[in-house]
Design goal:
single chain; alpha+beta; Nuclear Transport Factor 2, Chain: A; seven-stranded mixed sheet; 4 helices; about 45% strand; SnoaL_5; SnoaL-like domain-containing protein; NTF2-like_dom_sf
């Protein structure tokens, strides 16, 4: 699969609410995760469906924007607003990075 095909299928899983299936199907056993630790160290509960932008595919990379209303256990209700960037090699995601724009979570 090329990058466009991986990106299309990966995001379709997310839009269908099958996040875990997307990760199992497309992440390499050695995917590099470069994400902000503050968010993943908190208890998070999704309160509304995610809003996922259209994909942008450039070479071996694809990116998108995700907005989701969530409740963070130690902060309260907030809007998660992220840009996601992925690198694809051999039909698998080998690198991911999330850029978070959730000011409330960053400042607390």
């Amino acid at each position: 699969m090329n990058t466009q095909e991986v990106a299309d299928k990966f995001i379709q899983f997310w839009r269908d609410g099958k996040n875990e299936d997307a990760i199992k199907a497309f992440y390499s056993d050695h995917t590099i995760h470069q994400t902000p630790g503050f968010l993943y160290s908190r208890k998070m509960e999704q309160t509304d469906a995610a809003e996922i932008s259209e994909l942008l595919v450039v070479g071996e990379y694809f990116c998108l924007r995700l907005k989701m209303d969530v409740t963070l256990k130690d902060i309260g209700r907030s809007t998660l607003n992220e840009s996601w960037v992925f690198e694809v090699k051999g039909g698998k995601i080998v690198y991911e990075r999330f850029f978070n724009y959730n000011t409330k979570a960053v400042l607390v």
